[in-house]
Specification:
Blueprint (H helix, E strand, L loop, with lengths): L1 H10 L5 H8 L6 E4 L6 H9 L4 E6 L2 H10 L7 E5 L5 H7 L6 E7 L4 H4 L27 H7 L2 H12 L4 H13 L7 H12 L11 H11 L2 H14 L1 E11 L2 H14 L20 E3 L9 H6 L7 E7 L3
Parallel strand pairs: 1-2, 1-4, 2-3, 4-5
Antiparallel strand pairs: 5-7, 6-7
């Protein structure tokens, strides 16, 4: 198991750790919630930054939790790990008696290297594996293969276009349904990747595999990531203590848009049409936005960790009311 832990730590490079630590300031915190613990990279940085801080780590991936527990064991009872989805952050806080609120909350929405590099989980087209893509395989939810078996051609095309921004979405969806109707449903990552590559084609100098966008879109749909994110921002802000900071790192333009809008609404910006007699958009005045524009990884980090290239960090701070 030690080999697995060492391998996981080598593969997993948490994104924008310096920026997250600088914004949350563990030295002034008593309690931090890492809502997407993963392999514990951000949490480790917080615990190392101050001996007075404790962290609650939440993750829905049991494999990641097992490795994170070993990585963070040296911090003893300063770390508590809960197997749950980050959308349940309010329930987790309540169950652990976090009555005074959290002084800092972080959510890193990227898929971990452990998941991407797993040959069984179906996140990556580098391995021919069952087309699963569930963050929590024990959740009982639909796999990506089951989703493609159930949805209509239009619904598949809409998912690939909206979540993957894939311009060949209609052709890809049509071919998927044609295979299904011929009694050859797509059930493995290899089958899906091969179909998408034929449907989307590959430019001569294109560095990104044509299957990337479709795989990303299906992962978002399978795990209901965008809908969950909308509620998470509101719930996280509600359990921040006065002066507490929320940091969210996204890897997709739609995720970043959701986070930006949610933080703006929580800072008092109204999105209702100008002629509306009163606000109905749900605007509140709870936080101060700390990042007018999202922070992005430094060039050195992007070169060392290619998976950081699409990362964007936004943060807000709970007002003292």
């Amino acid at each position: 198991m030690k080999h697995e832990t060492d391998k996981a730590e080598t593969l997993h490079k948490p994104v924008m750790v310096i920026e997250a630590v600088s914004l949350i300031e563990p030295e002034r915190c008593a309690r931090i919630i890492d809502a997407t613990l993963g392999l514990g990279g951000h949490t480790e940085a917080f615990l190392e930054a101050s001996s007075d801080v404790s962290v609650i780590g939440i993750d829905q991936d049991k494999n990641a939790i097992e490795l994170a527990e070993k990585r963070l064991a040296r911090f003893g009872d300063r770390i508590r790990i809960v197997h749950s989805n980050f959308s349940e952050i309010k329930d987790v806080a309540k169950s652990l008696g976090l009555s005074g609120g959290a002084d800092g909350i972080i959510a890193d929405l990227g898929v971990s290297s452990l998941q991407l590099d797993s040959e069984e989980r179906g996140f990556s087209f580098r391995f021919d594996a069952p087309l699963d893509m569930r963050m929590d395989p024990d959740s009982g939810g639909e796999t990506a293969a089951e989703l493609l078996q159930r949805l209509t051609e239009k619904e598949i095309a809409d998912i690939i276009y909206l979540y993957g921004e894939e311009r060949h979405s209609r052709r890809i969806a049509r071919w998927i349904v044609e295979k299904r109707q011929a009694g050859e449903p797509i059930v493995t990552t290899g089958e899906l990747a091969a179909l998408v590559r034929r449907a989307a084609g590959r430019g001569g100098r294109e560095r990104v595999d044509p299957a990337t966008k479709t795989f990303q879109a299906l992962r978002i749909a399978v795990n209901n990531e965008l809908e969950i994110l909308k509620e998470f921002v509101t719930d996280a802000i509600s359990i921040l203590s006065p002066g507490g900071t929320l940091v969210i790192i996204t890897f997709h333009s739609l995720e970043d848009r959701i986070v930006k809008r949610a933080m703006q609404k929580a800072s008092g910006r109204c999105f209702c049409p100008p002629k509306f007699p009163k606000c109905v958009c749900g605007m509140t005045d709870e936080v101060k936005v700390l990042t007018r524009k999202p922070l992005i990884p430094k060039e050195s980090e992007q070169s060392e960790n290619p998976r950081a290239r699409s990362a964007k960090l936004r943060a807000c701070q709970k007002k003292n009311q």
